Amino acid sequence: MSSNEQIKAVIESGKAVLGLEFGSTRIKAVLIDEDHNPIASGDHEWENRLDNGIWTYTLDDIWTGLRDSYRKMTEDVNAKYGVKLTKIGAIGFSAMMHGYMAFDKEGNLLVPFRTWRNNTTGPAAEALTELFQYNIPERWSIAHLYQAILNGEEHVKDIDYITTLAGYIHWQLTGEKVLGVGDASGMFPIDMETGNYDAAMVQKFDELIADKKFPWTLTEILPVVKTAGEEAGTLTAEGAKLLDESGALEAGVPLCPPEGDAGTGMAATNSVARRTGNVSAGTSIFAMIVLEHALQKVHKEIDMVTTPDGSLVGMVHANNCTSDLNAWVGIFREFAESFGIDVDMNKLFGTLYNKALEGDVDCGGLLSYGYLSGENITGVEEGRPMFVRTPKSNFNLANFMRANLSTALGALKVGMDILLKEENVAIDTIMGHGGLFKTKGVGQKLLAAAIDTPVSVMKTAGEGGPWGMALLASYMLHKAEGESLGDFLGNRVFHGDTGESMSPDAEDVKGFETFIERYKAGIEIEKAAGVHLN
Predict the structure, then answer these.
(1) What is the pLDDT of residues 186-195, one digit of tens each?
(2) Can you give the residue range of the structural domain that contains 327?
(3) Which of 154, 256, 429, 493 meets the CB 3.0–4.6 Å disulfide criterion with 473?
(4) pLDDT category, 118, cuts 50, 70, 90?
């Protein structure tokens, strides 16, 4: 049999597994075979909108995008294998973490979906961090809920359920109000001993709002927490119609716990074991480091979340990474086109990125900030992309590109230094994935220098979150008795492949340290621009 015929047999027998992920700009469905290889996919582009000062997506945006990406995936199946998709072995949904979706008893959305991008919860986040002695970032669901209470919002008394985007989709398709522990850990702190919401903090929150006399307690309105490998419901007949408008998909498919995009990134890079981590670098950048023990202090720059199987993770999340860098590459494209040169963008990115490696290790005294939005880690409220140099700086193309690539890692480096230098967190290896690593060896070399740790890049890292979600669904379906998620991924999916590793170069490390001191000193310039440049 040809491999196509084998895949066709897998699809027809209902053994293929589906992962779907709602990213900030794209919804993607990935179907995998029994060897965990992607065999079909479909995607749908979407954009959040600013509605009355709130970054949101409408329910119509959500369902239109979900159905379109699913439909395109089934068309891909039909085009490649000549078969109609009617049966699926297991399904998993993932999405951007955090945010706020609040529903009443009838299941009506009470206020427009407030995404993770909204930084309107400062007073709530600060008060809860103080109350819990645990970092509560502004984008966490509990910060959104408490801010709504502080604002005296009318809808709060009518809340019956709050969840994340992935939790909402899962609920609509299965009737189950559940959430994977990784996604849940971005709603409310998780107790590592119980694998559930921290009971002492839940009690503190209920006492904090007792005088409001709401007809609910916190645990009554939060999703039930599930761990990777557990079953989390089955696709109902109504859910099947919601997902597949053609009516071809059969109900009864088992679903794994819905997860956040951070958890699927960990699965897709085989970074769920302790002392491992991954850095996802695209429009934003974040590092997920699986910790051996809790941190000694509360750090506002570090989010404490979990892996999909419930291990403690220190997360460093920066809002800005490659957007400004991409804009500069666009300027070079315009320059070339002005001379009548037809530009291949992959070649342009590759050429400019590699040019950076010819630059001085400290970027020649140049400084830039790719801040399109504010940056919590460095305390910048409003972003102003900026390039600065002194008359004595060594201003050439190589240093210009190196400065712009280095600054894409700047805020992440500040946060990682807290973990590595203040908390002495041990990391054996970091897995890099995302757009910054597409040009071989460049982003990888600079990240290794920034965090003074070996960085690996896998060929499969480009498969991303929806593939990672499909792996979590496959784990639920195929795991052996007592087989951990780490063992399942390491032995059955990645087969011991650790990717191409690059160790930090001592001179690069020294140069990046010089650059980051300049970067931190210049933050006041960036803040001033936010005040004076409107």
Answers:
(1) 999 999 999 9
(2) 323-411+507-532
(3) 256
(4) confident
